[in-house]
């Protein structure tokens, strides 16, 4: 009879939540568990079957009109997307319930084992005391965790699921039409079907080129400006800094919309000035190539101040004596830059640099406000020559209601950003040699 | 030992909460069982109600009365707010139904309705361009115009009824037609051009790119304004009066012929399509640097103020000898299928699109009526500007309202700049666009 209590408590708790605790004479806790199970059972008996039905079928009856005395009446059917969300919520709750059940069994088992070992099980008061004393942090993280689960994780799961349906205009828009699971069909269309894949690969290529160029140009530009301003012997440093920070102070939206007019190929001031000097001007926003150049140049204007601020901060942390030592050894300014400044700056800002890169992949504002993806491209589906994946995604959802395609694109953007970031983070020196700078 | 006990408790508590929260939600039409779903239909009250005290609802509206305690929400465009406020006030006075107005651009209303309608958060009456009708009707977001069907058909132009119908069923309550015509500056153009060859000839004498003076300007990258070049010689968007999605007519011989006329005009407007936008065009026309402008009634008030008596307006010049056919858009009211008060909503839509309402709209905002009697009214007939639009409207085709219309804009608006900016052969560009539309119509969403 050594293990008698352990086994009995475990079996009882498995049968019905709380029975094991009651058997262990922890009555209050046991009753709380009992009530939880009772309530949960009534909830799941009503909901769970429908949840599984819903997530498998996504609804079976579609909405229609019925004529009553010549007047049309709407007869509601299943709204596939609502069903999907509700089923998802129910199933998540069910998983939480299973987790609770597992912990209830474990608790009963442990208390049983304690009794077998000759201890008296703790009273309810003691249990509370124990939690408050030793498990305070975990306890109060429960609510935020549930919040994150419902408001962050659940929507993400939902979006991912959409990519595997045919939820799109015009033929599969609830409530009039039902939505079905189509497996990898959407991804197949996106990657293989010519009309979509041409757009996808074109936009993807430009997105990556854009992310690299825009990150590199703003970073190097910022570094150049920062070094110029913080050089010894430069006067009115405060003034220079103030002037250079102005673009950062203007809301991006305003400056970009302004730029859009500045760069107008016929009526914009830039080309008008060029004309004064006898130059023809450029088709800044109407030619695919020059439009790409323009967005990168404008992005430099917006982005350099940020890098400048960052790098100026880093420059002040470089110890002066390193430069003095280099001078004693006869290094010229380029050598000083290459051996001291660049590595120190890169080292401290690498994580930010990667974050900027990932951010530029999704730099919606720069493109959408400046060119709105234009100039139009006859070979693309719902995208223009300067569209990034993220602006294309915007057009797919808000203008065209191709939600399934948009989710698929969204998943791919996520994979790209996540893998770049992970790969780079792991290779960055700041993470490998955390002790390089004290 | 008693680890995670509170975690269990909290999890349990949240579950208990959700039981109560979701329990009450149980009957909200998600039951799948067709019986309970049917009882949840919001339009039960559609049955002729309130036959007791038919006060003074007037002969034509005697068929239905607003539900007790009905209040309406209406989405309206910001630009036409003056009219909306006035008509809502009159409606409230007559039927004692409060009307709440929310500003929302008509082009965004169907998208918003498709999100908010099924959750019963949408407006009861919406105002949409008719080319969005197919998308809304095929998604079953709208109640058909059944109570006032006969009257609406009897009172409005045939084109307006075509525009307000989808799949053989009348949904809309048309209230205005919108198309474009040729504005010109009388101090620069002595005689209104009759053909686009006239326009070309005049432009050659007037256009001077270095001084930013142009004989004519319009949004050359926008299919809406370029449609005369496609349609006047026999091109079309969709066959069978814009209902056959498999018959695409943007690359027929007629369309290509018209588009080569279009391409010729680059000589007098040597600018890339992307550099022309309404703001720039408006500024140049007002300052006399652009002599002619193809645009719609929405510019009328501003142009009148800037040019005064020098403003002329005439139907579009002929394309290749054929009468120019413009694209017409109808602004139509429609009733949300999920409205709580279908009767009140239908009454409002009818009331706000009546003859009197259309005349008021013309007076306050400057629109062109679709109501036949309103079109004959001196207020319209004697106004040279409105009558010019009304004249052009006679030679216009309603935009196709089938849902596939959404697939047309983007490819054609990409092809037109290729023709204009890069001088691509119209046939090549339009063939590609037509192929894309076909792909989109039959593509992945099938």
From TrEMBL, chain A:
GO terms for biological process: maltodextrin transmembrane transport. It is found in: Cell membrane. GO terms for molecular function: ABC-type maltose transporter activity. GO terms for cellular component: maltose transport complex. CDD domains: TM_PBP2. Residues 204-424 form the ABC transmembrane type-1 domain. The keyword GTP-binding does not apply. The chain crosses the membrane at residues 27-45, 81-102, 139-164, 200-226, 238-259, 289-318, 339-359, 403-423. Keywords: Cell membrane, Membrane, Sugar transport, Transmembrane, Transmembrane helix, Transport. It is a multi-pass membrane protein. The keyword Cell inner membrane does not apply. Belongs to the binding-protein-dependent transport system permease family. MalFG subfamily. PANTHER family: MALTOSE/MALTODEXTRIN TRANSPORT SYSTEM PERMEASE PROTEIN MALF (PTHR47314), MALTOSE_MALTODEXTRIN TRANSPORT SYSTEM PERMEASE PROTEIN MALF (PTHR47314:SF1). Part of the ABC transporter complex MalEFGK involved in maltose/maltodextrin import. Probably responsible for the translocation of the substrate across the membrane. This is Maltose/maltodextrin transport system permease protein. It comes from Paenibacillus donghaensis.
Automatic annotation (TrEMBL), chain B:
Coiled coil: none annotated. The keyword Cytoplasm does not apply. Gene3D superfamilies: Periplasmic binding protein-like II. Its main location: membrane. Keywords: Cell membrane, Lipoprotein, Membrane, Signal, Sugar transport, Transport. This is Maltodextrin-binding protein. Residues 37-64 have a biased composition (Polar residues). Residues 30-64 are annotated as: Disordered.
């Amino acid at each position: 009879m050594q293990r008698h209590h352990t086994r009995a408590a475990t079996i009882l708790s498995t049968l019905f939540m709380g029975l094991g605790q009651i058997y262990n004479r922890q009555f209050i806790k046991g009753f709380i568990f009992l009530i939880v199970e009772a309530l949960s059972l009534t909830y799941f008996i009503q909901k769970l079957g429908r949840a599984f039905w819903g997530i498998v079928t996504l609804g079976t009856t579609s909405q229609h009109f019925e004529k009553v005395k010549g007047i049309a009446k709407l007869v509601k059917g299943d709204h596939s997307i609502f069903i999907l969300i509700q089923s998802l919520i129910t199933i998540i709750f069910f998983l939480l319930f299973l987790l609770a059940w597992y912990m209830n069994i474990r608790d009963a088992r442990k208390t049983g084992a304690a009794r077998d070992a000759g201890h008296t099980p703790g009273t309810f008061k003691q249990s509370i005391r124990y939690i408050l004393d030793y498990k305070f942090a975990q306890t109060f993280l429960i609510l935020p965790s549930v919040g994150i689960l419902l408001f962050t994780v659940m929507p993400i799961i939902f979006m991912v699921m959409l990519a595997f349906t045919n939820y799109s205009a015009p033929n599969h828009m609830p409530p009039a039409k039902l939505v079905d699971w189509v497996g990898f069909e959407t991804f197949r269309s996106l990657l293989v079907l010519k009309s979509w894949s041409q757009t996808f690969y074109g936009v993807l290529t430009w997105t990556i080129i854009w992310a690299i160029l825009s990150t590199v140009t703003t970073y190097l530009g910022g570094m150049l400006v920062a070094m110029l301003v913080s050089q010894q012997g430069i006067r009115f440093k405060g003034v220079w800094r103030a002037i250079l920070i102005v673009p950062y102070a203007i809301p991006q939206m305003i400056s970009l919309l302004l730029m859009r007019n500045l760069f107008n190929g016929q009526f914009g001031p830039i080309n008008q000035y060029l004309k004064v000097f006898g130059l023809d001007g450029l088709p800044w926003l109407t030619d695919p190539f020059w439009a790409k150049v323009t967005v990168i140049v404008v992005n430099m204007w917006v982005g350099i101040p940020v890098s400048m601020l960052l790098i100026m901060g880093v420059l002040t942390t470089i110890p002066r004596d390193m430069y003095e030592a280099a001078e004693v050894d006869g290094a010229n300014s380029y050598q000083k830059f290459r051996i001291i400044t660049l590595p120190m700056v890169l080292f401290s800002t690498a994580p930010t640099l990667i974050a900027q890169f990932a951010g530029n992949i999704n730099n919606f504002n720069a493109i959408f406000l400046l060119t709105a993806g234009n100039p139009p491209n006859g070979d693309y589906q719902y995208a223009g020559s300067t569209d990034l994946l993220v602006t294309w995604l915007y057009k797919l959802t808000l203008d065209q209601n191709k939600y399934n395609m948009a989710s698929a694109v969204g998943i791919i953007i996520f994979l790209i950003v996540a893998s770049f970031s992970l790969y780079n983070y792991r290779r960055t020196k700041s993470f490998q040699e955390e002790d390089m700078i004290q | 030992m008693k680890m995670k006990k509170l975690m269990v408790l909290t999890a349990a508590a949240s579950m208990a909460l959700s039981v109560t929260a979701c329990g009450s939600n149980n009957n909200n039409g998600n039951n799948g069982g067709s019986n309970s779903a049917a009882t949840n239909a919001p339009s039960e009250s559609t049955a002729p109600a309130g036959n007791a005290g038919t006060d003074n609802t007037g002969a034509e509206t005697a068929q239905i009365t607003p539900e007790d305690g009905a209040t309406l929400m209406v989405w309206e465009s910001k630009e036409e707010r003056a009219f909306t406020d006035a008509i809502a006030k009159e409606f409230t006075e007559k039927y004692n139904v409060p009307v709440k107005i929310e500003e929302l651009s008509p082009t965004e209303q169907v998208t918003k309705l498709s999100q908010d309608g099924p959750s019963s958060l949408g407006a009861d009456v919406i105002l949409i361009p008719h080319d969005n009708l197919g998308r809304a009707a095929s998604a079953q977001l709208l109640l058909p115009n059944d109570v006032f069907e006969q009257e609406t058909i009897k009172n409005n132009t045939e084109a307006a009824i075509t525009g307000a119908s989808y799949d053989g069923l009348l949904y809309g309550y048309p209230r205005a037609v919108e198309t474009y015509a040729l504005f010109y500056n009388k101090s620069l153009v002595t005689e209104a051009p009759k053909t686009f060859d006239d326009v070309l000839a005049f432009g050659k004498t007037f256009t001077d790119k270095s001084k930013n003076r142009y004989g004519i300007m319009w949004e050359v990258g926008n299919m809406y304004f370029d449609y005369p070049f496609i349609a006047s010689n026999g091109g079309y968007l969709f066959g069978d009066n814009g209902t056959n999605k498999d018959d695409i007519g943007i690359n027929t011989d007629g369309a290509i012929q018209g588009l080569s006329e279009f391409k010729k005009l680059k000589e007098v407007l040597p600018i890339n399509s992307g550099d022309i936008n309404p703001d720039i065009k408006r500024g140049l026309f007002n300052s006399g640097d652009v002599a002619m402008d193809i645009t719609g009634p929405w510019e009328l008030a501003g142009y009148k103020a800037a040019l005064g008596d020098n403003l002329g307006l005439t139907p579009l010049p002929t394309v290749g000898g054929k009468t120019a056919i413009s694209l017409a858009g109808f602004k139509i009211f429609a009733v949300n299928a999920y409205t709580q008060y279908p009767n009140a909503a239908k009454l409002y839509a009818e009331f706000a699109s009546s003859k009197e309402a259309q005349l008021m709209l013309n007076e306050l905002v400057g629109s062109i009526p679709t109501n036949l009697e309103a079109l004959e009214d001196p207020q319209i007939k004697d106004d040279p500007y409105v009558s010019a639009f009304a004249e052009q409207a006679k030679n216009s085709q309603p935009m196709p309202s089938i849902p596939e219309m959404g697939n047309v804009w983007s490819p054609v608006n990409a092809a037109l700049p290729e023709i204009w900016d890069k001088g691509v052969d119209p046939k090549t560009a339009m063939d590609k666009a037509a192929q894309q539309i076909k792909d989109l119509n039959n593509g992945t969403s099938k």
